[in-house]
Amino acid sequence: MTSTHIRHFLADDDLTPAEQAEVLDLAAKLKASPYDARPYEGPRSVAMIFDKPTLRTQVSFGAGIAELGGNPMLVEGKLAGIGIRESVEDVARVLGRQVATIVWRTFAQSDLETMAQYAGVPVVNALTDEFHPCQLIADLLTVREHKGDLAGLTVTFVGDAANNMGNSWLLAGVTAGMHVRVAGPLGYWPSEEMFARANAIGEQTGGSATGFSDPGPAVQGADVVVTDTWVSMGKEAEEAARATIFAPYSLTSELLAQAKSDAIVLHCLPAYRGKEIAEEVLEGPQSVVWDEAENRRHAQKAVLAFLMEQVDTA
Ligand code: NVA
């Protein structure tokens, strides 16, 4: 079964620039007034499935869904054995008969797309190997709170950008009209297709996506500096090699000093102090990582309310 009117949030560019702005406005409104949207009143249930470790995502979705009037239902990924015990297509059709929305953290983006194709209810990406779009709504909300209008701001992502966070920053940042720079060793950038996909959005929004191999010039003049672990979930076997490859891209106070003096620092967490980020940067006055972590809940509530509004008005 496929439903054409059901909207999903699988990748950052599933929202148009206007829709992204609408979701960010709603997130700010819900932060100020947490019980204003009740799309799951009843309550309707939301399945949350995690095939990879989680702290912030599980807790922020769980608390957020409850605030939206719903029942957050944790579906244990290992017990469900999606794609192992039964196919993604079959799981999607079963879950879609029980719950109002499916939130899934898994490995392959293609599995998430299959889930969306068969579920008959909105499916939300709670992180895949390729994208982490809910994190980006939280990040953009955080930047807006500290910097105002997003359009025209420069954000530099230092470190391993050939991952979900790098890809999501390219698409979501450019959708917001930002200039997104990634600084990492050659071979560890988002793909050329991802740059092209972001820059095509930039033709409408005025934003842009550029790669740098030298972190200094990449950070120069930035309004926002972002980093992420060098060892994403699933890459643990490469940990030692990555420590060497990424060492020149550590976000130290010397590197941060090249950004604007009022630049803010984001990190989706968990953070590895002394690796991708120095202790004094993470804990320093420019770091807004705890606001960012809080904003997961407000951002995701806005995404869920937006998607449910499309269902309920279809
Ligand atoms: N790139 C990281 C993000 C963690 C929230 C990972 O995939 O492990």
UniProtKB/TrEMBL annotation:
GO terms for molecular function: amino acid binding; ornithine carbamoyltransferase activity. Its main location: cytoplasm. Keywords: Cytoplasm, Transferase. Pathway: Amino-acid biosynthesis; L-arginine biosynthesis; L-arginine from L-ornithine and carbamoyl phosphate: step 1/3. It is an enzyme of class 2 (transferase). GO terms for biological process: citrulline biosynthetic process; L-arginine biosynthetic process via ornithine. One of its GO terms (cellular component) is cytoplasm. Carbamoyl phosphate binds at R105, H132, P133, C134, Q135, C268, L269, R296. Residues 152-307 form the Aspartate/ornithine carbamoyltransferase Asp/Orn-binding domain. L-ornithine binds at N164, D228, S232, M233. Gene3D superfamilies: Aspartate/ornithine carbamoyltransferase. InterPro entries: Asp/Orn_carbamoyltranf_P-bd, Asp/Orn_carbamoylTrfase, Asp/Orn_carbamoylTrfase_sf, Asp_carbamoyltransf_Asp/Orn-bd, Orn/put_carbamltrans, OTCase_ArgI. Its EC number is 2.1.3.3. HAMAP family: OTCase. PANTHER family: ORNITHINE CARBAMOYLTRANSFERASE, MITOCHONDRIAL, ORNITHINE TRANSCARBAMYLASE, MITOCHONDRIAL. This is Ornithine carbamoyltransferase. It comes from Nocardioides anomalus. The gene is argF.
